[in-house]
Each structure stands twice: as C-alpha cells, then as structure tokens.
Amino acid sequence: MTPPRIVFMGTPDFAVPSLDALVEAGLSPVAVVTVPDTPSGRGQKVRASAVKLAAERHGLPVLQPESVKDPAFAEDLAALAPDILAVVAFRILPPAAFETARLGAFNLHGSLLPAYRGAAPIQRAIMDGVVETGVTTFFLQRTVDTGNVILRRSIPVGPDDTGGDVHDRLMAVGAEAVVETVRRIADGTADAQPQDDALASPAPKLFREDLAIDWGRPAKAVHDHVRALTPYPGAWTTWEGETLKIFGTRLPDEAPEGLGPAGTVAVVDGRLFVACGEGVVEVTRVQRQGKRRMETADFLNGAEVDGAVLG
Question: Are residues 150 and 297 in the same domain?
C-alpha cells in the first residue's frame, strides 16, 4: 500500500517523539508545520522550535505560517494534497486548514478525553490528584477537543509523580498512539466514537493566580498542586514580601504538631514543615526571588523562617 501523504504539525519537545516515530515507521510526512522562529532568552537570540529542529534533522520541508487563519496557509496546505494532518501540541486550526486533509485531521491530546479538555491537561489532572491519565487521538472539528475519539492510551500516575514525570511518559506513549492512529486512518479501520459531553471536564490555561499555593487546603491537595507545577511553571507563595517558589514537597510520615494556622513554618532538625488546613507538608526544594533553585537545607542556611507564616 502506498504510504499516506501526511502533514505533521507541532511546536514543543512534546511533539518531537511523535515526528521521530512516524519517520522511523516509514511514514515520513511530506511537510512539517511549526511556529515561526522567535527571539528568546538573554540577548533575544532567534530560536527555532523543537519540531523545526527535528524536521531539519530528518530532511523534511518546513512551513512556518505567521497565522494559521490566513487563507494563504490553507492554500499552501491544499497544494500539498495531504491525506492526513497529524497535529501534536500546535495551534488551534480553522476548518479551512484541517478540512484540506482527504482522510481527516487528528490531534493528540494529553488526557483521557473527554476529561481535561483545554490547554493544561497534564497539570490540571495532577492538581486534582488523579491516579490515571493518558493520551487521546481524535478527529478535529470546530469546537476544540470535542472530536470523535480514535484511540486512548492510559498510564498510572504515582502519588509523587511531577508534571515533568507525567509529561515525559505521555510524550512516549503519545508517539506510539500517533503512529497507530495514522495507520488506522490510512487503512480505514479508525472506528472513531463520539465523546460523552456529560463526562467532560475543563483544563484551562494556567495563569499566575492559578499557581499560588493555598495553604488552607489539605496537605495532600497542597502536595498535588506543587508536584503538578514542577518543574515548570512552578507553584508559588509569599514570604516577607517576596515571591517564594516551591518545587518540592512531600507528605511526611512524622511531622511537628500544633504548628499554628495554615502557612505557619516550623524548622526541625534542618527540615522545613508547613501547616496546611489539614495536616502538614515538608518542603524539600525552593527558589527565592531572583535566585537559583535550591534544596531546602541550602535555603535554611541563609534564611530565618522558623515561625514565619507563608502566603
């Protein structure tokens, strides 16, 4: 069978294994679409996306539209005569773009849809303390993340797994799902099923206020919040008028009692404990404003926090 004409779309590291897997499976895209190069970091050096670098490594043509809503972009896609559009962590496409694919356009989403529809499915799921998540491939339609499901692949989430841990595992599982989805669409066995909207939950984009730690919540909820936002973008609280980011917590087997109101700090034997609305968390890794990330022991060498109230 002649391989399908695939156009792959993606931007960050999360999408790279999916592109690599297609190439390795003999399903090399006829073109790769990603964002324009952008200035970033100190000195505003112009940088290419992770997907563009991967495409160049494979010798694949790259398109970098300024706007996916520009009619010229849809015309460029149509000229490629794609059978399938494979979308992994890219922009929201208008119908004029995704309808250019003869057999259909699909997206890889980082949750078990219809749960966690939206821009931050991995972090939102961990913040809720889920014990299982996964990836879903679905056919694109006008409303975001609502299309008919082609396949799902699940993974367990451990009680101390961070957002980074889950991201990396989903990245690998997602690559396998993308290859399987392309094969099913190409051979006509993609038995896509509608999502049950009654089971849907939102995973909206995270803003600064969403990252703040509410010490009045139970200790487990605080721990889930911190690990969901580790290593990026980081949960934060305040201490003596400055922002203090928290990148590591754990639920200790033993903790000091009678700490006081939620947010109260106790330093015991070089360990930092914080009272929550119910229970206590131990903080293991922090970052002071304008400083590098550090283990709590290093933080305590230069900070007097015993008895302070965070937040």
Answer: no
| Same domain, residue pair 59 and 188 | yes
Question: 282 lies in which domain range?
Answer: 208-301
Give bridge partners of residue 290 from the DSSP assignment.
none
Give the domain-ending residue among 178, 199, 220.
199
Same domain for 230 and 192, yes or no, is: no
pLDDT band, very low/low/confident/very high, at 2 (cuts 50, 70, 90): confident
175-180: long-range pairs with CB below 8 Å, 24+: 175/17, 175/18, 175/20, 175/21, 176/21, 177/108, 177/135, 177/137, 177/151, 177/153, 178/18, 178/21, 178/22, 178/86, 178/88, 178/108, 178/137, 179/18, 179/21, 179/22, 179/25, 179/27, 180/151
Q: What digits encode the pLDDT tens for the residues 81-127? A: 999 999 999 999 999 999 999 999 999 999 999 999 999 999 999 99
Q: Do residue 72 and residue 54 come from a single domain?
A: yes
